[in-house]
Known about the structure:
With 239 residues, this protein is mostly helical. It has two domains: 3-153, Ribonuclease III domain (Ribonuclease iii, N-terminal Endonuclease Domain, Chain A); 158-229, Double Stranded RNA Binding Domain, CATH 3.30.160. The chain has helices at residues 3-11, 18-24, 28-33, 41-62, 68-78, 81-90, 101-105, 112-130, 132-146, 154-157, 159-169, 210-229, and strands spanning 176-183, 190-197, 200-207. It has a three-stranded antiparallel beta sheet with strand order 1-2-3. Strand 2 and strand 3 form a beta hairpin. The longest helix is centred in the N-terminal third of the chain and has 22 residues, at 41-62. The radius of gyration is 20 Å and the shape is globular. 33% of the residues are buried.
Amino acid sequence: MSDLVKLEHILGIKFRNEAVYKEALTHKSFAAEHQLNYDNQRLELLGDAVVQIILTDYLYRRYTDLQEGDLTKIRSAMVNQDALAQFARDISLGSFLMLGRGELELNGQDRDSTISDAFESLIGAVYLDHGIQTATDLFLPILLKNYPDPAESLQEINPKGILQEYTQQKAQGVPQYRVVAVTGPAHAPQYEVEVLIKDKVVARGVASSHKLAEREAARAAVHVLLHRDGEKAGTGEKE
């Protein structure tokens, strides 16, 4: 069974134009090594726009009581690199990517930036091959499987953004992050990061990467601050 046939089974879609899916799965590093005149960057641009319109329409219809600002925040959280990478992993997209040798050595098939871009490229390909409804039917179940209620998931998806918004509302400046320890073997390090507000340590986070540790520290800090002040994230309202 070819990779494209396997991907068809995962997505539940019959590919009409296989060439557009090959393009969606072709990373620029592979294209350069094999002297191809295409890669997935153009489809990424298209797919980004398709995801935005699908998601905006969904949020507009679902959350009729929310204003533009809140809908924009939720949408931004749903299409950030972390969320898109999770969507890509949900369909094992990384295993289908055509990557150059350097990318493979750097584990590009599971790097957030690479697979999140590929997910947008795939949505772009589905849109070109089948239209907006099929793209919607593919994207929304993946979205809702990972985030059943996008509005409630905002704090979990973007804790650093929530924390920064909160501290700015309170005139406490921008949170600062610093690594305090890196432990474990080189192939599986554990980063410990602390977050400071006005030079005071508020919380710490531990994870397998610097970026994830910052998120964990921010999430813990949001919990600490909201519990202390008895407020809801991003609202300034008392619970």
